[in-house]
């Protein structure tokens, strides 16, 4: 099998270049930036429940022993966990911790949705530009003066560009999108697991919510 026969530079340029250009034109800079960040995050260490729990274990133990009122923001390598513990210490309530966690989760969901739009758009466009390359190759065929070699080359390019579009969509872009989604879903589960542990550890250390004097008088 001659693998070199499967390569056509012009066809690849049409499919790759066209898909990239159309994706950029069809997406906003915010979405493109989010997509780039999500792809880059695939090459960074995953959120590690055990690692972050070990980082904040001492701080949590101090709050359990001394109470939330004397607690301090936990030092950790994860900025979100630092945010939720800061909210806990500032407001002296688990409700503030859970609300901040939900706020961070909503930000991640919004970021994930923005990141996925350009990738799925490119997945849809790749076969389209594969077909565009096929049509381009067919327009280069001139039956009146074309040699056999030229005809074979044009037919090969027409077939290969369709193949490139299908491969780009189904073997590159679609698996990439699924990989990002799985990675982010796993992170959500690990973060929720840590928040549940943190809330369980500090449930008895938080002061009870203050009663509303006005409601007491009405009652």
Automatic annotation (TrEMBL):
InterPro entries: MotA-like (IPR047055), MotA_ExbB_proton_chnl (IPR002898). Belongs to the exbB/tolQ family. It comes from Parerythrobacter lacustris. This is MotA/TolQ/ExbB proton channel family protein. Its main location: membrane. Keywords: Cell membrane, Membrane, Protein transport, Transmembrane, Transmembrane helix, Transport. Residues 94-192 form the MotA/TolQ/ExbB proton channel domain. It is found in: Cell membrane; Membrane. The keyword Protein transport applies. It is a multi-pass membrane protein. The chain crosses the membrane at residues 118-139, 151-173.
